[in-house]
Structures are given as C-alpha cells and as structure tokens.
Amino acid sequence: MPLERFYKLPEARRAELLRIALHEFTEKGIEGASLNAILAKAGLSKGAYYYYFVDKEDLFTAVAEDLYDRLEAQLPPLLPQQPVSAEEFWPSLEQTFSAWLVAACKFPELLGAFRQLSQQLRASPRLAPMLRRRQEEQFRSVIQLGRKLGCVRMDLPVERLVSLMVVSDSVLDEALVTSRKTLSDAVVRKHARVVFDTYQRLLRP
Fold first, then answer.
1. What is the mean pLDDT of residues 199-204?
2. Cβ-count burial of 36 within 10 angstroms (0-12 exposed, 13-18 middle, 19+ buried)?
3. What is the C-alpha to C-alpha distance for residues 71 and 75, in angstroms, rounded to an integer?
4. What is the pLDDT of residues 66-114, one digit of tens each?
5. Nearest residue to 26 (alpha-carbon basis) of 119, 106, 141
6. In a 3-state reduction of DSSP, which class is residue 118?
7. Helical segments of 74-107, H only
8. Which pLDDT tens digit goes with each residue over 118-146?
9. Residues contacting 202, CB < 8 A, separation 6+
C-alpha cells in the first residue's frame, strides 16, 4: 500500500497522479506499464515518487483502491436500507442486486478499467487480498442478515459461504465479460438473474 504521507498530498495532486497511472495500467497492464512514463506525465521525480510509494505495485494498489471507491460511490447499497421480513429478504435482495449491476454498467469507463485490472489483482499475492476483502465485506453482510432472518443455511461456516459466493461471482462475471462486447440493460438483467439464482442455490437452507 502507499505510504501514509501519500494521503497527505493535496487531493487534486493525488487524483491527477492516479488518473495518469490508471490510463497507463489499463493500456499496458502492471508488467508493461512504464513508471518513468507515468512520472514524466505527472511531473513527479523518482525521488519524490519513492517518498510516497515503495514500488510500482504500490501505485497499482492505490489506483485499484481509488477505482473501486469511485465505482462503489456511484452504486446503490446492496443490502436493503429498510428492515425486511424473512418473506421479503430474497425478493428485496434480488431487486437491489439487479439495480446494482445495471447502475454499474452506466459507468463503462470505470467498469471497463476495473475489469481490465481485476485479473491482475486476483493473480497478485500482494494485491488479491485487497480486492477479495472489499468483495467479501458485502457478501458477509448479506449472509449475516439472511441468517438472522432464517433465510440462509446454517450448516456451513459464514466464511465458507462467503468463499462460495466469491468463486461463483468470479466465474459467472468472467463468462459475461468474455462472451459480450456490449452490455445492454437487458443483457445485464438476464445475467443478474443467473447470478442471483446461483447465490440462492448456494445459500438457501
């Protein structure tokens, strides 16, 4: 992760560096991206860079975190905002989950960049925990609420259920991305139904 002093830079300066780095990483990947090119465009010396980051992977992590934060900020909450009954749990969750996916596709630049980077994030021992942690937090909240309402199975540990959701989500999303060039609302809603049906089959008692 970036050193703490990176976050003390003026917000506009941080945003500019992350924007330039995002473009380079999206175009060339973490291995092919040129740190020198990023620094030249950002007007930052190597000495100054290493004052804020340990290496290139540190910058990549900062870019990915920022990208995830910006995308998440545009999306509706995954969990229902009002208390729900056991009868309302699955229908309410399906409605908000479908809206979440459709909303995500309204930001193709952010979503496209995140998709480009996500494979590299998952493959990196240093970076994978960041992506997994962010995703697991949402799934864990869903499972814990469902258990309180008696809507989620109790025969497996919470963390095992979280792992099942993470794996199924990854497999189905990869299939969607590799099979489609454009994501219309109809395509996304159909995909949401398949993903949600899979979640229910994994989680229902």
1. 96
2. exposed
3. 7
4. 877 877 777 767 776 677 899 999 998 888 888 777 776 666 655 556 6
5. 119
6. helix
7. 86-104
8. 666 555 666 666 667 777 888 999 999 99
9. 161, 164, 165, 168
**16, 39 Cβ separation under 8 angstroms:** no
Which distant-in-sequence residues (6+ apart) come within 8 Å of 125 by Cβ?
A: none
Smallest CA-to-CA distance from 138 within 193, 68, 185 is with 68
What distance in Å separates the CA atoms of residue 172 and residue 153, rounded to the nearest whole number? Answer: 22
Nearest to 143 by CA among 101, 96, 95, 89: 89
N residues, the chain: 205
What is the token pair recorded at 21?
């780095």
Cβ(175)–Cβ(149) below 8 Å: no
Longest dimension (CA), the chain: 59
Q: Are 60 and 25 in contact (CB under 8 A)?
A: yes
Instruction: Report the distance separating Cα 88 and Cα 92, nearest Å.
Output: 6
Sign of CA dihedral 180, 166, 63, 81: positive
| pLDDT at position 183 over 70 | no
**Rounded Cα gap, residues 46 and 26, in angstroms:** 22
Query: Cα separation of 65 and 155, whole Å?
Result: 34
3-state secondary structure of 24: helix
Angle at 203 between CA 202 and CA 205, to 5 degrees: 115
